[in-house]
Amino acid sequence: MNPSSCHARLFRRHLIASAAACTLLGMSAHVAAQSTDSESADADADYQLQEITISGTAEEQLKQAVGVSTITKEDIERRPPANDLSELIRTMPGVNLSGASSTGAFGNQRQIDLRGMGPENTLILIDGKPVQSRNSSMMRRSGERNTRGDSNWVPANAVERIEVLRGPAAARYGSGAAGGVINIITKRPTKKLEGEVTTYFRLPEDGDEGDTRRAGFNLSGPLSETFSFRVYGNVAKTDRDAVDINAGHGSQAAPAAGREGVRNRDINGLLRWDLTPDQVLEFEAGVSRQGNIYSGERFVQADLNPIQRQMADQGAETNRMLRRNVGITHRGRWGRWGDSRLIYQYEETDRRYVNEGAAGSVEGGFTDPITWNNSNLKNHFLNGELYMPLTTGAVGHMLTVGAEYRREQLRDPGSQNANPPAGFERSGNPEISADTWALYLEDNIALTDALVVTPGLRLDHHDKFGNNWSPSLNATYQLNEQWAINGGVARAFKAPNLYQSNPDYWYYTRGNGCPIGVDRNCYIQGNPDLDPETSINKEIGLSWTNHQGWDATVAVFDNDYKNKIVADMPFAPPPVGDGYNRYQWFNAGKAKVRGLEGSLNVPLLGEHGETLKLFNNLTVMDQNKNKDTGQPLSIIPKYTLNSTLDWRINRAWSAELSATLYGKQKPRTIGARGQELTTEGRGSYALFGLRANWQISRNLRAGFGVENLADKRLYRTANAEAAGAATYNEPGRAYYITLTGSF
């Protein structure tokens, strides 16, 4: 994998492209309109079956920042994830996997965490369109959701590339991108009929760990001179761990649950219509299903109740999600007015989950007999952008003007299982919705051949939380042929989610769920008077390349984070003065996230290291805590070092040896009741992998490898509210083989 060298090459190419764009932009619109017919024909031919790429737009410029990484389809082929793309994304700088909170509940449901800002501040996109299915899962009192997140809706065999944007570069995407953005780009229609089928099998050495099997296909090509298509499908299953895999590794009598399994079914189709050489229309529709394989996970109780034990032994499904999406995209060229893109997407997620007991009937436990709840989440997304070339004197601009609308509508009767205390009423309507409108401007300005600045301003209006301004300023300066400086600052925000802001959402807890000294029932109510979470994200970086295969980057990031929305009992304001222990979600104080990212890529054999090359990236977290309480925002390693030795043996064979070193992980020290916790942290550890790929023929390739070569296993030794840093399982040695046939 070669993200950093890719950055350097793209950066250099972009500077050249920007200089060329400035020259063109300096011409009058009339001259631009008088291009020769042959030039137009060449441009039109290039446009037929590719996405529009506009050299010099603000979006493209921001993707050259040192806080941006790219995973290519070749990277995925050489290092295939077992099932979820997060397994590969976690190897990028600034990326880790963490739980939804620092309590450890649902600890094995780890999601992408960018720069320690937490999974809820990571925005997942598919082809530039937001994916929000995880929002259909109820948010519990300390921020937990029983969800795997949204990184597994596209199978690995359908991905063209993955863009990982961190820090100021992500602020342009609006609410939920304070940590960063993961943009999963799918494969596009092709000029001729092409297809491939991929199979994958992963077998762990320990029989108590779940294996993985998946098969997927891609098919694309032309239907006529103006129509083309792409369709992909996927069937996958990762089995659960044994129910008692963590036995003997915890202080409690009953062991914590191992990793849940997951069943995936995906089908997606895209139809492209080239209306004219300058106008393209795409229609897309897809259906995906994810169902868990229950392994005994529970929220707070020490042991499984009988019905949970029965369902765990059966490997039953207790949480299934069905996602349906349809979308229309138009891309156009309008001569001297510039280019445009217009996207509409409708996304609907049905989540069916086992009903869980409230306080007094084993909080979070399954009821007997089993009953089911259904939540339904509908999301509308409309986005339009116009890219206009302008000139001011001798200075060239590429102005981006954008508008966006989002509507989120949730119906979850299960969120109203807990009745409010006497004297309180609620509407009885389990539906809540939110509308957000946004306008934004970005200007990519080439002040000189060496200096490109990108100011931006975004205004979001939330129908319940008012206006949020997100200004940004990014700049790139090319010191010389080898050295460049990149920096940026931006304000980002996240609106309260539909559970946190819903006054009809009541969460009921008692005993271990209430603060110390409170010996009766406690209630947490949604709060419509919350303020959005905000952060000021700053970044400055330096990149170097000597054009002989050596390249390096270093970046310092600093985020000032405030108004984090929590319902953590010991730090909550006193109960509302109504005679009951009624708490609400509230805005906490300030927090600081600060760290360093770097990369160093070293050629060892061959020209520019084409035969043997060493790739390295490092992330160091200096601070990640709430300033008022000293508690961590998320439990992530102090440092993460990823190294890969890439050997291109010959045209048919390649191999790689990878190593990942994780630093110490420190847990929270205060429990949800305000008690001091004595649970353990997690020490540093390393994981190694060995892989080989064989291009058997033009249309057949195979891959095989060993993951966790040294068999470093980590067991989950803590559970529920007393959890420390040891809240997840790290699986042991496993072997995989994959085979792909194409035509």
UniProtKB/TrEMBL annotation:
Q: Which residues form the signal peptide?
A: 1-32
Single GO BP term: siderophore transmembrane transport
Q: How does the record say this protein sits in the membrane?
A: Multi-pass membrane protein
Domain TonB-dependent receptor-like beta-barrel, chain residue ranges per copy? 262-709
Question: What GO CC terms are in its UniProt record?
Answer: cell outer membrane
Molecular functions per Gene Ontology: siderophore uptake transmembrane transporter activity; signaling receptor activity
Motif location (TonB C-terminal box)?
A: 726-743
Pfam family membership, one? Plug
| Region listing for Disordered, in residue ranges | 132-152
Q: Where in the cell is it found?
A: Cell outer membrane
| Entries under SUPFAM superfamilies matching the protein | Porins
Q: Which InterPro entries match?
A: Beta-barrel_TonB, Beta-barrel_TonB_sf, PirA/FepA/PfeA, Plug_dom, Plug_dom_sf, TonB-dep_rcpt-like, TonB_rcpt_CS, TonB_sidphr_rcpt
Domain of life, per lineage: Bacteria
Alphabetized UniProt keyword annotations: Cell outer membrane, Ion transport, Iron, Iron transport, Membrane, Receptor, Signal, TonB box, Transmembrane, Transmembrane beta strand, Transport
Give all residue intervals belonging to the TonB-dependent receptor plug domain: 63-181
Q: Which family does it belong to?
A: Belongs to the TonB-dependent receptor family.
Its name, as the record gives it, is: Outer membrane receptor protein
Q: What is the lineage of its organism?
A: Bacteria, Pseudomonadati, Pseudomonadota, Betaproteobacteria, Burkholderiales
